[in-house]
Design a protein that fits this description.
Length: 285
């Protein structure tokens, strides 16, 4: 299944190189199991979304490695894809940008024509064939309906899909230049979070700087050493303590001051839950 990654450093512009390329279970490593596309989304110095994505696995894509090393942003969204809906084309590759926001999705749902009807004019925002980009358009529609509240838009969009369409999972990460949201729903796919302070990691006697401990090593990450950060990921990317699994239906919001707000926004299960392993071929995991 696809894998998600989100990073917020608040208002500080950083590089996400370690998590994308060098961590014990980096996105590049995960792309060997999810080889149908890879992408990194971030924001330039003016706050405009930038997408670097290609229908190639991260471990083979020079563009992915280049942006992973060079891109600087306060927030990042990255994704490695295992395609089932929509061909291996750039337009179907995550992340997606819409109305100044960036989004990626892990999971799937079906009956897309019914969602297109619900979207109305917002269907024009969808450029590809995936359920995921339609989900983003519904989030955008619902955020507008809630006065621009992105968290309320995510919750409302997920509730509508869960009530009306067959669903495997609606895990998503959405970012703006200074904020990050992540939803885990229902509970079939994992989504983890870690709040990382500035300074030494939890390795005894560590030097000043961010150290991320795996089972076998400690790695210094100068790009992040001077600022705190919050990371959301489908898999625990390293062996450091502090990772926790989001609860089913939990939505987290990382504010520009890096305060993490959290609430279970969907308590009930989907009306038509599709068990993992029996997915309809028209859903994108």
């Amino acid at each position: 299944m696809c894998r998600l990654f989100g990073l917020s450093a608040g208002t500080a512009r950083v590089r996400a190189t370690f998590w994308l390329l060098d961590a014990p279970d980096s996105l590049e490593i995960q792309s060997r199991r999810n080889a149908d596309g890879s992408g990194i989304g971030f924001f330039d110095s003016a706050g405009a979304p930038v997408l670097d994505k290609q229908p190639e696995p991260a471990f083979r894509a020079r563009e992915f490695r280049h942006e992973a090393k060079q891109a600087e942003s306060a927030t990042f969204v990255a994704h490695v894809r295992l395609a089932t809906a929509g061909g291996r084309e750039t337009r179907n590759t995550h992340p997606f940008a819409m109305r100044g926001r960036i989004m990626a999705h892990n999971g799937g749902f079906d009956e897309l024509k019914r969602l297109d009807e619900q979207l109305g004019p917002y269907a024009e925002l969808v450029l590809g064939d995936t359920d995921s980009e339609r989900y983003f358009a519904l989030i955008t529609q619902q955020a507008d309906a809630h006065g621009g509240d992105v968290g309320a838009g995510i919750a409302a969009a997920a509730r509508w899909i869960a009530a009306n369409l067959p669903v495997t999972a609606l895990n998503t990460v959405v970012a703006t230049p200074g904020e990050l949201w992540a939803l885990r729903y229902p509970g079939q796919h994992a989504l983890h979070i870690i709040e990382r302070p500035a300074g030494p990691g939890d390795v005894p006697g560590a030097e000043t700087g961010l150290h991320v401990r795996s089972a076998t090593s400690s790695v210094r990450v100068p790009a992040l050493h001077s600022v705190p950060s919050v990371v959301v990921a489908s898999e625990r990317l390293d062996g450091e303590t502090g990772w926790r699994m989001l609860a089913q239906g939990e939505l987290v919001h990382v504010r520009p001051d890096l305060k993490v707000e959290s609430a279970v926004v969907i308590a009930e299960p989907p009306a038509r839950l599709v068990p993992v392993g029996s997915e309809n071929p028209n859903v994108d995991t």
